[in-house]
Amino acid sequence: NEWQEISKLIIILEDFAGATEYLGGSKYATISLMYSVLAMIKQKILPDNDSNVEDIDLTNSDTAFDDDVGYEDAPEDESISEQPKRRKININTPQNCTDLEKRVKAALYRSMNHYWEVPQEQGMLAALLDPRFKELRFASNSLRIRTQEQLKSAYQKMKNLTSNEDQESELQPVSC
């Protein structure tokens, strides 16, 4: 039933609306916040497997589900213009709602990976350093450990660099 499928889509899209409102209302740097919110949404819409992820051309202006929608062309007697013909959705024809929730989740997941490609290392380090997210509860255990190791490594590099600079300044004679 189309109405049942629409109800499922509303639940999915509520997360996006909440995230947009939450991130859009921030008056401070939000990469750590953004990464955690996106990670939680992506986890909710994660496809069962990669076979459910349709190959959608995200650079094309057609919609992801154009093939599934019944269209009717505008009447031929309308004035000819340079604009392309308008297409109207034929609402009297039942739409293909088979696995609609899965297909929309997969399309959203793919779109998020395409448009919100925040470098994972940077986003995770920002979240780790943010007191609100420092426990990285939204991430897998292996990702948490890897992020902590990256922070330790970056800290060690900076510590070594600073100690080398201190040693060089001690060796240089002071000229008056």
Characteristics:
single chain; 176 residues; mainly alpha; elongated; RNaseH-like_sf; hAT-like transposase RNase-H fold domain-containing protein
Describe this structure in words.
The chain has 176 residues and is mainly alpha-helical. The protein has two domains: 98 residues, no CATH class; 37 residues. It contains five helices and two strands; from the N terminus they run ααββααα. The protein has a two-stranded antiparallel ribbon with strand order 1-2. Helix 1 packs antiparallel against helix 2 and helix 1 packs parallel to helix 3. InterPro entries: RNaseH-like_sf. This is hAT-like transposase RNase-H fold domain-containing protein.
Give the helices and strands, then pairings.
Elements: H1 2-24, H2 31-45, E1 71-73, E2 87-89, H3 100-115, H4 120-129, H5 141-171
Antiparallel strand pairs: 1-2
Helix pairs in contact: 1-2, 1-3, 2-4, 4-5
% residues in beta strands? under 5%
Structural class: mainly alpha
**Could you state the order of secondary-structure elements as H and E?**
HHEEHHH
Identify the strand order in the major beta sheet: 1-2
Topology, number of strands:
2
Instruction: Average the pLDDT over all residues and give the rounded result.
Output: 78
Give the biggest beta sheet: 2 strands, antiparallel
Number of domains: 2
Low-confidence stretches: none
Quickly describe the structure:
This protein has 176 residues and is mainly alpha-helical. The chain contains five helices and two strands.
